[in-house]
Amino acid sequence: MVSSLTKKETWSEYWRSLKFAFYCMTHPVDGFWDLTHEHRGTYAAANTILIATLIVRLAKLRFTSFLFLQVYWEELNIFLYLASVLFPLALWVIGNWALTTLFDGKGKLGQVYMATCYGLIPYPVIQFPLMLLSNVVTVEEGQFYSVLSALSLVYAAILIVSAMGQIHEFSAGKNLLFTVASLFAMLVQVFILTIFFSMISQGVLYFISLVREFLFRL
Is 18 among the domain residues? Predict the structure, then answer.
């Protein structure tokens, strides 16, 4: 009986936190403040929104009309396609958290991740019906489709920036400054990772050449 009640409460909390994403979508200032400071958000809901974003992004490849999206399946790598979302997300979360921690930012790493995922909610909400709509609109009406598609990305970006300001308790000017700094930090991380993997690959190649030379002399 206790276990049953616990499961029911867990699911109730999950659905409540998931529905709260729509409140954040329409009331970003109050919503993202309550998300972390009042513990209205959960990692389960954040992960669900991220997974929904990935699923919709994949579904668009299959179900969007060819008039608006042409897919060359023989050249498509699904894993790289998904990584084009997950990799920048990871860079943003780490970069934003690392910088804001040095300058009195109140948000923790997990809170930055959660708020960022909640900020993605406009993408699946807008892109899913657009995906279906693309199959019934004409080319002449395509501008409407393109505007709404771009709006989902701009909307998500605005929510994420707003979320960072609330969880770190930054003023608008300071938040914009650290948004730009976080984007720069992403580039720095890419540069460091590029050097790191380049050194690793060179080390592996050097080790292989040594082994080959040793076997050749034997």
Answer: yes
Report if residue 216 sits inside a domain.
Answer: no
Chain centroid offset of residue 114 CA = 10
CA gap 108, 153 in Å, rounded: 25
Beta-carbon contacts of residue 48 (< 8 Å; ≥ 6 apart): 18
pLDDT in tens, 121-177: 999 999 999 888 888 877 777 788 888 889 999 999 999 999 999 999 888 899 999
Give the domain range for residue 94. Answer: 2-182
Answer whether 178's CB lies under 8 Å from 96's CB. Answer: yes
φ, ψ for residue 7, nearest 5 deg:
-65, -40
> Does 137 reside within a domain?
yes
Q: How many structural domains comprise the chain?
A: 1
Q: Are 118 and 47 in contact (CB under 8 A)?
A: no
The pLDDT of residue 125: 94
> Rounded to an integer, what distance in angstroms lies between the CA atom of residue 52 and that of residue 125?
9
